[in-house]
Amino acid sequence: MPDFSIDYSTLYEVQAQMRKLAEQAASGGATGAFKELGEANSGERKAALGTSGLSYEFNLFYHHSKSRTKSAKDGLEELAESFKAVSDIFFDADSNIASAAGLMGNSVGLNDWKDDKAAYDHWAADKAEWDDYLASIGATEWFDEHPDATSIRAVCHGDDAPSWCANWNEDKPFPMHPGDAPDKPGPPPTSYHYEDEHGTIDVSIELDKDDNVIKEKSTITNPQGQSFTTETVYDGPPKMVDPPGDDTDPYDVRDYTITTTSSDGTKSVATVTINEDGSGTMVTVDGKEKVTSTRSGPDAKWVETEREDL
Asked: Is 3 within a domain?
């Protein structure tokens, strides 16, 4: 898992303090922490805010706005939003990197489990066909007593062929011995956990009766305690479309909803509708605004088409 590139706890703390300052500004007076930081020397401001550039910008902001502190409220909240946006963007990026690094090579293992289950189910079907055929020619007991025998043809063409071979006709189709049983898989895996000094990744999935994924949830948490949770809920089992030709892979056209929760508890909900041709519409609401995006096909990128305040 790669190193997280930003101290998110510092960024979240700065934006939280900015919001407190905005509340003080709204009261109509340059008092408290806002006044102390504004009237501090450059070294103290730099120590508090982290960079000389931010210290300089804050100093200009303070001296231009201290005589109009009520008007400063909107500016402070906008600045706080900027800090929050930066921290969320970088944390989201690091989360995606961490998720890919941890999960692409170490997934919950559902696909491998499905392959193992398919192999076992195939063997079980072959075994049932074999057993039924042995019963039909009266050979069940003989093969039970001779577990190393695997070929009806070899047995019936050998010396001292059993009497049941009279019921066997090599000119007619008959099943082959199924071979040794593969390991029978247990319950499907539905969770994954990864942890090291850089943070944790937790993934869980919910399956329907046919072992299709109908819900996914992943949480990335860094050492500072900030977490980023994404939950995807599908409207049912996969609805695969296999287009003609070799240029396009089969794609899923089921609708789904994505709910993303950031470390400060804010949520973003994206409702996705997919059409039969793979095009679709995604409407994302984060509590403050609604963004509509569309895509032209199953492999096309989502493109924002409308944005409105709520």
From this structure: no
